[in-house]
Amino acid sequence: FVAYRGQTELLGPLRKIELYEMGWNLKDGLRECLVAAAPYGGPIALLKGHYRRSPSARPQLEIYSSSGLPLASFPWKSGVVKQLGWTVSDDLLCVQEDGTVLVYDLWGGFKRHFSMGNEVSQSQVLETKIFHSPYGTGVAILTGALRFTLATNIDDIKLRRLPEVPGLQEAPSCWAVLTQDRQSKVLVANGSQLFILDNTACTPVTPPGLSPQASSIVHMCVSFSYKYLALLTDSGHVWMGTSNLKEKLSEVDTKIKTPPKQMAWCRRPKSQQPSAVVMWDGLLIVVGECKETIQYHLDDDSVLVPELVYRKLYPLAIEVCRYLKTPEYQGVSRVLKHWACYKVQQKEESDEVIAKAVSVKLADAAGISYSEIATKAYESGRTELAIKLLEFEPRSGEQVPLLLKMKKSPLALSKAIESGDTDLVYTVVMYLKNELNRGDFFMMLRNQPVALSLYKQFCKHQEQDTLKDLFNQDDDHEELGNFYVKASYKDQRLEARVALLQSAVDEYYKAKNDFSAKTTEDEMRLLRFQRKLEEEKGEQLVGFSLHDTMTTLLSVGLHKHAEQLYKDFRVPDKRFWWLKLKALAEKEDWEELEKFGKTKKSPVGYLPFVEVCIKHHNKYEAKKYVSKVTPEQKVKAHLAVGDMEGAAEAAIERRNESEISTVLSRCSATTDHLLMERLNRAKATAVKK
Amino acid sequence: MLISYQKKNKKKHHHLISSQLHSSLQKELLQFLLECCVGAAEPFYHPRRPHEVFLNPFCRPACQHRCKTRSASSQVYSAVQSVVGSLHMAHTEWKDAPGLPDFSLLKRLARDQLIFLLEQLPGKKDLFIDADLMSPLDRIANVTILKQHEVDKLYKVELKPIVSSSDQLCFLIRPRIQTVKWISDLVNADKVAGRFRRYKIIFTPQKFYACETVLEEQGVYGDVTTDEWNFYILPLDDDILSLELPEFFRDNFLEGDQRWVTTAGSALRLLQSVYGSFSKVYGIGRCAKMVYESWRELMEDGEQRTRQPEFAKVFLVDRDVDFVTPLCSQVVYEGLVDDLFRIKCGSVEFGPDVTSSDKSIKVMLNSQDKVFSEIRNEHFSNVFGFLSQKAKNLQTAYDKRRGMDIQQMKAFVADELKGLKQEHRLLSLHIGASESMMKKKTKQDFQELLKTEHSLLEGFEIRECITYIEEHINRQVSMIDSLRLLCLLSITENGLLSKDYRSLKAQYLQSYGIEHLLTFANLRQLGLLEEQQAGETLTVMESKVGKLVNDKTVGKLTDAFSSLAKKSNFRALSKRLALVPKSGEEYDLRVPRDMAYVFSGAYIPLSCKLIEQVLERDGWTGMEEVTRMLNGQEFAVTGGSSSSEARSKTDAQRIVLVMFLGGCTFSEISALRFLGKERGCRFIVVTTAITNSSRLLEALLDNSA
């Protein structure tokens, strides 16, 4: 029965298990039904399908005993029912939309009907509450015109229309019927305002000590004895006090701001303390006089299994899960998890025994999180057991957070590394960095190359100085050298740059990397040279590569200085010649180019001379060098200057088939007819050979 | 920088002529086109598939997939349900090949989730986007969509103080510490100024603890809400899926930071959840192994439902298994366009030299572009001839108007002319592009460059090659190209002789500056450019490698950081796998006989050859020698659904997913497309990013910041 209490009134203390199997057959639970349960464990009435308002599908009214025996069942043929309720003498009241109330007995026999008055039938019933008082059973109705009509005793009907509530524009956020001073009154909340309506007046009231954050009272309920009142505000506070609003019992923040499904009073079994129970989807909270609340999670549609689990009836809970065919990870596994969480708190058993028992039981269960169980063990002060349990966790990543919490940092780090999730490793590293002193931190990283490498990456972007320290610790002189080189070209000031490079040189020597050391020394010399020349000649040079420096010098005519670099820096002849001939050609200093070509035998040959002249559209100069090129490049040179005859001559002379072909491909059929014939003949003989 | 709301090019060229063809007249016109092609005296393009020109209109009817309900752990998977109903196969491109799954679904999933996330911050907000996310974002949700969800102004993340008057700031970023630090500074600056705003960070494709740690350290954790946009995959084309993570390469292979491994695993998981499971997984490389592990773990976490798979086989390959291929100059049209103009996120900007006007034009390059789709895989030497023939055909189609009566003319103008004009426009663009390429690439120096590359691949005239490279460096021809040649030389020769290494390095530093000492250190660490160790024989090296691989206690990650010099063994591999065809043989590039055509017949991409061999053998059996030379780390796993074995001849069985970890080149994609055609299967490439030699080497430079 408890399974369905979500939709019925909460009748008593909370922990109930299924007592009786109800004889009803509901496909969709009670969602589609109007339900009323009589007080003191009386009968239960259901109106099935009353939401479906088609004439063909009549709703069915059914009455059951509280133990689930069907008492009556018949199709509903009257008007639209807004509310069901029971009288103190177990008569069923069916309040219709038009204000007519039909009365049936326990067995479904029609007894009588009465009307709640003209005003109600005209403006229709909006909401109804059926209440009990020492004077009998009463009915209170809120009409479509937002007025209340009330009858305190249905056996002696005296209709009372209560005064208007000022400023009420729409249905009030909530309301309740109180019995005070032998009079039935209505307590109405309109937003944050509260009013008491009695026969003659509408009086605004303020609950003492109601938390000011609330802008609206969203739910209220009165205890069965009308002694206590509970108010729930939109800020999630539950105010509890006497229903005369004179005294405050307590106020508790549930921290839940969504409107609840239901709220009711109950008495806690042991303490007999009056408490309010508030229910949301899937959650039930009990609040009492103390600030603490008790939370129950109502999972899915079934509350039964958690109830069994709560009572530690694990084997039964598992059987129920199997019977209900709950998917394993939602059912059996969950029960097992609860069991394990309970098990790990058993103080009298040893770590080994518990760990073994848990692993054996849970071995085949799907979706078990060992880290959760381990957390429980840790919270019960059993760190060693927690570590043992974590070993069963197949995903190493899952183990990490708890290990960190337990201050098992080295283990957490290795587990993170094992998980292969660099992101996780990084997290642990960052955690350790804040947790440990620098020395210990570095020492720990030293044993974990993966972590160290990741941390180095971090430092590269965020903490350059730490990076240096790390390299120092490892005596990694090569990396230190690189570090200083990198730092040097980030610095704008020459002196700083040179100093950094000097550090790099020292490190490279320590690393026995003579090549890098010498190169870096060269760079220092170059920088000084550049600076000196910048000061003397005003050419911007600092930071240029050797090549670019020479190019600049040559292009502004500082040949001597370029030549000095050429000698000082062991620049290969070839590079220097390339540089110089390019620079001269760019300035179209053909005379100087010719002189340069004659200084000694060109290390790059003379074809580049030809090409560089052609590039600057000086065929005349280009031709001067054609004769000087090597035989292999003759054809190319002739072709470059557009001398087809010469090219053909050279190709034929060399009897080189591919060269002949190249020349042929450049010949034009109209103008070079004779030449082509010659070439073709030569080609034929070349092929024959 | 504020991005102006320019009305985007409406991608008009995406229209397929096919979609407009339905009347009988149009069929006649097609028939005519067909006759033009087949009846041409000389097969003008590709004699083996003349039908390609007109196959598109007769695409297969949509094949509906019913989606079985899956319990969804993340929003992405639940969103699958809502859209999967409309899933259908994309156009088939050639007759006997299986159809490809419709990957546009991935875009819709990503878009829906982004919209959902934007709506989590109701009201007007300014959006800051990481610069490298802008193009991918544009493919998913354009400015109009963003504005519809109350994005007021768009800014590029520049790591500088911002000028925004909005009360709500949203940041769409990659999970990078630097960016998060910048946001933290912004928040703190606002606090000091007493300014109240709401901040939301959307990390894509996922957040990292590391980023949250930064928020915490900077004391703004409570002020900022964070979310994840699980935008793992951007479909660049029918058969190319990209993670758009160029930093994957450097992070993973150079810096040993494997945080992207889970991302790659999640991408596979996403594909699997949308398109069905795989029956067989092969892979090679340490990262590939880790990605597979991560994927497997994700699969175990989720529910297992057997579903008709859309592709049966998966091949995972690390970029460092084959460095030679991405270092070669590309000569297939699409690759060449990428090398010269840089294709970005599936689109390229052609400058004035191509458009022959004063402005640049952005063009989407994919199978929707009818002209491009026919030339993208062709060796460059064929392209120009093809394009001019195509131009002639187009003229013929235009001329068809002359014989028409009024009705026909009306229909022609209404339905056909637009398509022809469209084609005309594209044709002239591609002709412009090839002319520009011709100018650059038919020069003497490019020919010599290619010749040097080919010699290196062949192991022939190495001295001459070194001289050439030296001259290349000395003349300061190109910083990247010189480096590329040096790396090629080192890999193909198993490292350089000490004397050569030092001299070339010294000369390189003279040309480009001492900062490159660090670049060289990086290249050495990756095994791209090394000095041969004197006295160290092959066996010593091998036993080192062998020990490393077998030593379990070393752990999964540790060896990633070993700077142990890796032998490339290229020459031996090349011999064993016959990567380099014998020189001297004629190679007709118009009728390719193997994948070597993508490198002018000089070299079959190692990566693609491995894929071919493994698929052929259905595993690594018989390739022990090869895998040993590649440092092992190969695997082959049979997946869960054994029932799929029975349907071995379904379409799905003939679709192979290849995932490149660290990037793949267009040449490799072309080679795989060729292989697919040969074997009657289709390859879908999933890559962390499209790469080429420049991108690969630029990622390893250390000469700035």
Automatic annotation (TrEMBL), chain A:
UniProt-listed Gene3D superfamilies: Vps16, C-terminal region
Membrane topology type: Peripheral membrane protein
All residue ranges annotated as the Vps16 C-terminal domain in the record: 368-683
One Gene Ontology biological process: intracellular protein transport
Subcellular location: Lysosome membrane
Entry's Gene Ontology molecular function annotations: actin binding
Main location: membrane
Pfam families given in the database record: Vps16_C, Vps16_N
Gene Ontology annotations for the cellular component aspect, listed alphabetically: endosome membrane; HOPS complex; lysosomal membrane
Stretches assigned to the Vps16 N-terminal domain: 15-308
Family: Belongs to the VPS16 family.
Assembly notes: Core component of at least two putative endosomal tethering complexes, the homotypic fusion and vacuole protein sorting (HOPS) complex and the class C core vacuole/endosome tethering (CORVET) complex. Their common core is composed of the class C Vps proteins VPS11, VPS16, VPS18 and VPS33A, which in HOPS further associates with VPS39 and VPS41 and in CORVET with VPS8 and TGFBRAP1. Interacts with RAB5C. Interacts with STX17, MON1B. Associates with adapter protein complex 3 (AP-3) and clathrin:AP-3 complexes.
Protein name stated in the entry: Vacuolar protein sorting-associated protein 16 homolog
UniProtKB/TrEMBL annotation, chain B:
Name under which the protein is recorded: Vacuolar protein sorting-associated protein 33B
GO biological process, one term: protein transport
Alphabetically ordered keywords of this record: Endosome, Lysosome, Membrane, Protein transport, Transport
Membrane topology value: Peripheral membrane protein
Family in the record: Belongs to the STXBP/unc-18/SEC1 family.
Source organism phylogeny: Eukaryota, Metazoa, Chordata, Craniata, Vertebrata
Protein transport as UniProt keyword: yes
Cellular compartments per GO CC: late endosome membrane; lysosomal membrane
Database matches in SUPFAM superfamilies: Sec1/munc18-like (SM) proteins (SSF56815)
Main localization, broad class: membrane
Subcellular location: Late endosome membrane; Lysosome membrane
InterPro entries, sorted: Sec-1-like_dom1 (IPR043154), Sec-1-like_dom3a (IPR043127), Sec1-like (IPR001619), Sec1-like_dom2 (IPR027482), Sec1-like_sf (IPR036045), VPS33_dom3b (IPR043155)
